[in-house]
Amino acid sequence: MTDELVLPTTGTRVPPLPRARMNAEVEAAYELSIATWGIPSNLFRTMAHHPALAITEVPYANSVIFDAGVLTDIPNPDTDQGGTVRYPTSGFLDRVTKELVINVVSLLNRSRYSITHHTVIGYNTLSELLPDPDPDTRAQLAEAMLLHLVDDQGTPTFDRPGAPPYTDLHLACLRLAAATQANPHGITDDQVRDTHRTLLDHAPAAITAHGLDQYPGTDTPAYHNAYATGMLVELTWLTVHFSGLLNVWFTVLHTFDEASVTDDEIDFITVYNTTVPATIRRRNNALLGPTGWGDHPLNGTGPQSAVSSVEALTP
């Protein structure tokens, strides 16, 4: 199996909108997406066919994925104390945990655009933020943690013996995310309670990481419980934002990676092939299969693609 990213055998169904066809508001949002996400994206340029979606997508997506550090005042969860307390507007979960969750559901859904882009984002994020002083060790851990989320047949492997040292927070979030992707109706009260309990255990460290521990009223059980609930809401929303929305949307429209500096303002395929370790690229290729769209993975499982009458629209 090749190490290079498998290229689709068919094209996208909705070509990204050229910058020249964006109005000023959409182009400004496009520039904001580049500033935040790091690259010009076909996600945004496909969404740009619907201006209101494009304009609102960037702050919305940032609020659940990237934003952190903005605080607000809320009524004190400890009603006996009363008054208000400082509280984050977003960023309840750390970026490493978020990228693990995004990657696992995208891999399980075999959603090409999410797999390729969040493999790069996830690998860079983990390589930078994992708590080891040595950059080479962080990179090795990043590779192992992303590789062992699922195997080349799309089976979750993060819980197997010999998996990398995921924390109990990582595992709690990955378990709920994978279970949600598989069958949201199958989620039980106990699963949610157990996840919330783990989040509650980690809430004090997250509160300190936000710098909230310097403010009065943030060290009470009621505040910790409120913060853990914010973590749970963010976790479940992040999961379904990808598993139930973006993964499916990319798959339906066959959203393709940015392949040309001339047409797409970046050659993302080269970025992917030169950034992502070969072990992960091979696993991803197995899931994307010979068509490159994930509809015929190399292990022969998964839904079979139907002949489509949808042809690319002329932008």
UniProtKB/TrEMBL annotation:
InterPro entries, sorted: AhpD-like
Ranges where the record places region Disordered: 291-315
Source superkingdom: Bacteria
Protein name, entry field: Uncharacterized protein
Organism per entry: Saccharothrix syringae (Nocardiopsis syringae)
Lineage: Bacteria, Bacillati, Actinomycetota, Actinomycetes, Pseudonocardiales
